[in-house]
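Friendly challenge for the regulars: who can give me the structure tokens for this chain first? No prize, just bragging rights.
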Amino acid sequence: MTSALLANVLYSTGFVLEKRALAALPALSTRQPARVIGHLLSSPLWLGGSLALAAGFAAQLAVYRTLPLAAAQGIFVSGLVLLLLLSSVVLGERTSGRERQSIVAILVALVLVVASLRGEDARAVARTAPPTTLLVIAVPSLAAGLLLYRSAERRARRRHRLPTAGVPYGVAVGLLYGVSSLAIKGVSGLLTTHDVPGAAGQLFRSPYPYLLLFTGAAGLVLSQTALQRCRASVIVPVCTTVTCVFTVVCGTVAFGEPLPADPLRLALRLGGTAVAVTVLLALPRHDTPPGPRAAETPGPRVAAPTVHPPSAQPRPRSSAPNSPEFPGVEP
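First reply, four minutes later:
Bragging rights claimed.
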């Protein structure tokens, strides 16, 4: 539990630092991945955020070795509360009432998942998954995530379109990170201090490091480009929810971790997952267009000054018409 909470703090801090750094960088484009990486590596603040995420990754490895996937992902969702607080205080982002209600619903889902846990769940933690089963799940999911991101990019380029709130981007990146979570789970199961050479050979013969490498590189470019364009308080919760649901559903199948046998605990765990999916589908797809400018906002009426037509305006009087002291004054 301590490792999970530490991972939440590190992940939330890392995302906020990266978002703060992205605001000062030039516009990023997924069509130029090398340039994206070059801009990111030139920012000390972004490097600090990435180090925090790396530390969160290490804490996540420890969690996967002691908790089932469903339980671990349920606890990771609690980091959304800290993320919203940091994005409001540090980034100045404001969430709508509908978005705040969605976050409350996500917390309800977390409570349901945590309530389904028992101490003996740690004994049911699986270490590895059959490579064929893992690839059958991972490859189509990666393709779906990349196609969804490309579709979101095309829609964003259309003129006269409302600015996206980041939901499509978050779903696409969440699928990539869901596959990454499965790879992290597999790597954690193969780590050992007894036979390091043998464990290393077994690790590199498995698909885990290669999935982790691909999702890490692709997720870096896609997530940072999307995070620069959209609010962190929207895109990160969506991404986290998709990653959580994907990891719980697909990871339980791939790693063969049993669901609770008790009907009440099973209902709590499935109910928490269903609430998370419902919240995701209910989130607004576009940001609310800005309201009227302050200058256009109606205020108290002020009487307009009276303007006389030129013919009715009084002419200045002069005691010495056409004199040199008053040039241009007609009698």
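The chain is about 65% helix and 0% strand. Residues 169 and 226 are 6 Å apart (CA to CA). Your move, everyone else.
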